[in-house]
Backbone:
């Protein structure tokens, strides 16, 4: 059965849970379910394997649901002002994604960037977020701290403060907006809610500019 731990002594599975993991509350809030109890146990390889086996059984159904939702979103969002959708290669027959990326035109949002737009969408109940800063401004990328020969020998060339990636910086810091995958598993009504929220934010873009200035 899905999630059954075959050939494993159940006495080995931890039964005394530590302090409640806040991830449980977030998962339950996102899914409306009281499940995911494995997260209340220490995240041992055994517990993670059991969780993964169960989720793999659901993968194709959820992937197909996300794809239907994303294609509906692209149909409904095609006419939104200031929104650019990424073209999907026609050779793709099974579209798998986790977070959906689209771009805004800041000029159509009263010069407000993606950070202000994401905050406004979240205020409308849409799980939107920023992701992936350009490498020239990525705090975790610190080659100068590495003692690897290539980093030592090419320290000057690998210094991010010397780099300029105008296209990536414009995309990551001004235009890119990510929608969480559960948006596309909320049925037609949920997808319509997202499109309406984006249109609303664009219509009231002047308020975004005022907030950004403040």
Residues:
């Amino acid at each position: 059965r899905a999630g059954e731990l075959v050939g494993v002594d159940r006495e080995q599975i931890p039964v005394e849970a530590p302090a409640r993991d806040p991830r449980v509350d977030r998962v339950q809030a996102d899914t409306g379910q009281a499940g995911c109890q494995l997260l209340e146990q220490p995240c041992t390889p055994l517990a993670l394997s059991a969780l993964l086996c169960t989720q793999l059984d659901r993968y194709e159904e959820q992937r197909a649901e996300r794809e239907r939702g994303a294609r509906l979103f692209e149909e409904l969002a095609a006419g939104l002002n200031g929104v650019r959708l990424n073209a999907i290669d026609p050779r793709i027959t099974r579209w798998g994604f986790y977070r959906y990326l689209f771009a805004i035109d800041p000029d159509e949002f009263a010069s407000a960037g993606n950070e202000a737009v994401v905050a406004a969408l979240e205020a409308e109940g849409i799980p939107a977020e920023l992701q992936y800063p350009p490498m020239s401004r990525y705090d975790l990328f610190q080659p100068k701290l590495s003692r690897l020969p290539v980093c030592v020998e090419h320290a000057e060339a690998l210094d991010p403060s010397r780099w300029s990636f105008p296209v990536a910086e414009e995309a990551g810091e001004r235009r890119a907006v990510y929608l969480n995958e559960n948006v596309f598993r909320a049925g037609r009504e949920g997808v319509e809610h997202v499109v309406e929220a984006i249109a609303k934010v664009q219509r009231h873009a002047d308020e975004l500019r005022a907030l950004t200035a403040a």
About this structure: Residues 99 and 180 are 5 Å apart (CA to CA). The longest helix spans residues 45-77.
